[in-house]
Each structure stands twice: as structure tokens, then as C-alpha cells.
Design brief:
With about 300 residues, the chain is α/β, with parallel strands linked by helices. It is built from 11 helices and 10 strands. Strands 1, 2, 3, 4, 5, 6, 7, 8, 9 and 10 form a 10-stranded mixed β-sheet that branches. The longest helix is centred in the C-terminal third of the chain and has 20 residues.
């Protein structure tokens, strides 16, 4: 039986890039069976563009900006309601090559154990691997796990970004949606580690997408005011998420502190980073993320 694939694209005020992404979806050698676009209350005519040029796309118009976390939570929930077997997730500035989906599906079929997630190779506009979207290789993968992944032309991973991943719908039903209150940053890390804990995750280099960010850079680039979300969400992740085992929490927390130190050392505005650090630590310890269903209850248009 052929798997039903629903693609989910989250967008906010990038109508031309979204049009390029949706055009690329229609040009797939194996097209998705359905496409859901979640518009985070754009003000640039995004909704009209989708209605006028992509009539087959299901458009979800939100009344407020829920960030990437809320957008993907709503989009995934809509895909589950549309009887998806597999859900293909991507940002609005992601342009998949024509065989991207076919390669992800081939990797699934070639894997001895059904993967909960298969991630594409993500490159920037000049063809370099994009450091922002490099999946984290699974630490301590056994020889058996490496061999099983290699049989599908892949390597085992522990987490991935929302830029072109194919996730198993049943795994999502069991493990839950992304946490909408993360708003941005670390929502994909939390979701994919939770999805993959004790399960198979694969990185498929044969599936290629271009991530058209404005600049080329990794997660240690100076985020300015957004550093608050990095800090708060990491505290939430390390103290409240079911995605990481205790040993993993220690390893990833140490890695996070080293990256924060590099970010701070290279920043031209350390005052902003210090402010974000203080507020992020305070809010992360003092509060927890609100239930996703509660947060998103009033943002979908009737």
C-alpha cells in the first residue's frame, strides 16, 4: 500500500520564497498527496498568493503569529486529521530538488527498521552544507545501527531541524506535537529528540533541498534579542522535555554552554545577550511551556 504523504509548510511574510517552495513541491518526481500551508498572520499578501496561484493547497490562516513552533504544531495536527501516513515538514524558504521526496521515501523503504524520521541534506544557495540545518549524528551508534542506516544510503541521527524532514505519523500520534510555546528556536530539536528517543532516525544525503536564508551561518551566530528564546527554551528542554535521557542532557547542556560562550565572545552587542540570558534563565526556571492545545485554541480562523 502506498503511503499517504502530506507536506506541511509554515510561512510568515515571505510570499515570493513561499511561491518558489510550493512550485518546487509541484515539480517533485513523487508529488506529495496533499500540501498544507500554515500562514502565521502574514501582512504581505501571502494568503492571497496561495489562493490565486496554488488552488490545490490547503491554506490555514492564523489570526496571530505563533512562530515556527506553533505553525508546525497546527500544520502537523491538520496533516494527522487528513489521514497522513507520513508528514513532510519544511520552512517557507526551503526549495526541494525534484527528487527530494522520492529519495526520502526510498530511504524509508531501504531501512531494515522503519524510521520515525528521515532528514534531507540541506545546502545554502551556493551549494555548501547549511550549518543551521545539519542533523545531529546519533552518539554511540552501534555497528548494527550504522550498518542498517548504510543499507538505506543513510547515517543514524538523534535530532534534525524542521527544514525537510519526513516524519512517521504514528510516531507523532504517540509522542505528541511540537510544543507551541517555544515560539522559535529549539522547538525542532525538542520535537525530534522526543520523536526519536528509542527509535530510528536517518540522514539521507540523496534528498537535497536548498535553504534560502539571507546569510550563511550556524547556531552560534549572534542572535540579538532572540537569544532570550534560545536560553529559555533550552532550560525548558533540559528540565522538562522527555526527549533526552539523563546522560544526553548533560552532554547537550555542556555543548550548549560552549556555544553560548562562542556567541558571546563574537558579539558586538553583549549587553543585549546578557539581558536575554538573564531573562531567559529566569523565565525558563520559573515557568514551563503552556499546553499546545490551549495556546493555539484561538488563533485559527473559522
Amino acid at each position: 500500500m502506498t503511503a499517504r504523504v502530506v507536506a506541511v509548510v509554515v510561512t510568515y511574510n515571505r510570499r515570493e520564497l513561499l511561491a518558489e517552495a510550493l512550485t518546487a513541491l509541484t515539480a517533485q518526481t513523487r508529488r506529495p498527496d496533499a500540501v498544507v500551508v500554515v500562514d502565521n498572520a502574514s501582512s504581505d499578501g501571502t494568503a492571497g498568493l496561495v489562493r490565486d496561484r496554488f488552488g490545490d493547497v490547503e491554506l490555514v490562516e492564523l489570526t496571530g503569529n505563533t512562530g515556527g513552533a506553533g505553525g508546525f504544531a497546527i500544520g502537523i495536527a491538520r496533516a494527522l486529521d487528513r489521514d497522513a501516513d507520513l508528514i513532510w515538514l519544511m520552512d517557507d524558504d526551503t526549495v526541494p530538488e525534484p527528487a527530494a521526496l522520492a529519495a526520502l521515501l526510498a530511504a524509508r523503504e531501504g531501512s531494515p527498521a522503519p524510521p520515525a524520521l528521515v532528514a534531507s541534506r540541506v545546502v545554502w544557495t551556493d551549494g555548501r552544507d547549511h550549518p543551521m540545518n545539519t542533523p545531529r549524528t546519533k552518539p554511540g551508534a552501534t555497528r548494527e545501527e550504522l550498518a542498517a542506516a548504510a543499507a538505506a544510503g543513510c547515517t543514524p541521527v538523534r535530532s534534525a531541524s524542521f527544514v525537510s524532514i519526513l516524519v512517521d505519523a504514528e510516531a507523532v500520534r504517540e509522542r505528541g506535537l511540537p510544543i507551541a510555546d517555544y515560539f522559535l528556536w529549539n522547538d525542532d530539536f525538542e520535537f525530534t529528540t522526543r520523536l526519536l528517543r528509542g527509535r530510528v532516525g536517518l540522514y539521507c544525503p540523496a534528498s537535497l533541498v536548498v535553504h534560502k536564508t539571507k546569510t550563511f551561518g550556524g547556531t552560534d551566530a549572534d542572535p540579538g534579542d532572540r537569544f532570550y528564546f534560545e536560553v529559555r527554551n533550552k532550560v525548558w528542554l533540559f528540565t522538562r522535555s522527555r526527549g533526552l535521557a539523563p546522560v544526553e542532557r548533560s552532554l547537550y547542556a555542556a555543548s550548549t554552554l560552549r556555544r553560548w560562550a562562542r556567541t558571546y565572545a563574537g558579539s558586538a552587542d553583549r549587553t543585549t545577550l546578557r539581558r536575554g540570558l538573564r531573562k531567559g534563565l529566569w523565565d525558563g526556571v520559573r515557568t514551563g511551556p503552556r499546553p499546545t492545545e490551549e495556546l493555539l485554541r484561538d488563533v485559527e480562523s473559522p
